[in-house]
Amino acid sequence: MSAFRFTATPIDGTALRAELIDTHCGGFTCFEGWVRDHNEGQQVLHLEYEAFEALGVREGERIVHEACEKYGVTRVLCVHRLGDLQLREIAVWVGVAAAHRDEAFKACRYIIDEVKHRVPIWKKEHYVSGDSGWVNCERCAAHSHDHDHDHGHSPGHAHDHDHSSHG
């Protein structure tokens, strides 16, 4: 089973934690990123996530491998939602089981920070006002992707990835 994956179904943190239980581990920590009701002064109704899945899984696996090497942990799982998410749903879950708590905490923080920075995931917020917008699209500048949604970039900003696999 992959240590990094995307899912279109709600994330069950308890079930994911059970996948990491190991008698060689003395500690476990996790991070759950939830859909909140506000961002940058806007009242949020719900979110949509899209990803370049094949590249995202490869980069996510690379991040998990780096964390295992850097912090000496062996039991790691990271799951990110795709599709439409409602308030309070889990958008991303990272769990780390390790021999000691310090390594688990450090690896968990490293993974979530690197996933947010490096994995090609796009978030669209839908607001109470009826507006919506793509937010935190640093990857739009870092990678060349094409898709049919507007990121609010200046004219001439081009994308060239294919969203045909996103249903």
Please write out the topology:
Blueprint: E1 4-7, H1 13-20, E2 27-34, E3 38-39, E4 42-51, H2 53-71, E5 75-81, E6 83-86, E7 90-98, H3 101-118, E8 121-127, E9 132-135, H4 138-142
Parallel strand pairs: 1-5
Antiparallel strand pairs: 2-7, 3-4, 4-6, 4-8, 5-7, 8-9
Helix pairs in contact: 2-3
Alpha carbon gyration radius: 17 Å
Number of strands: 9
> How far is it from the N-terminal to the C-terminal residue, by CA?
23 Å
Shape: elongated
CATH superfamily: Molybdopterin biosynthesis MoaE subunit
Number of distinct helices: 4
Largest sheet: 5 strands, antiparallel
Reported by name, the CATH topology is Aldehyde Oxidoreductase, domain 3
CATH arch. level architecture: Alpha-Beta Complex
The structural domain count equals 1
Strand content: 25-35%
Would you write up a description of this structure?
This protein has 167 residues and is of the alpha+beta class. The chain has a single domain (4-166), classed as Aldehyde Oxidoreductase, domain 3 (Alpha-Beta Complex). The protein is built from four helices and nine strands; from the N terminus they run βαβββαβββαββα. Strands 3, 4, 6, 8 and 9 form a five-stranded antiparallel β-sheet that branches. A hairpin with a 4-residue loop joins β8 and β9 (132-135). The chain is elongated, with a radius of gyration of 17 Å. Mean pLDDT is 87; it is low at 140-167.
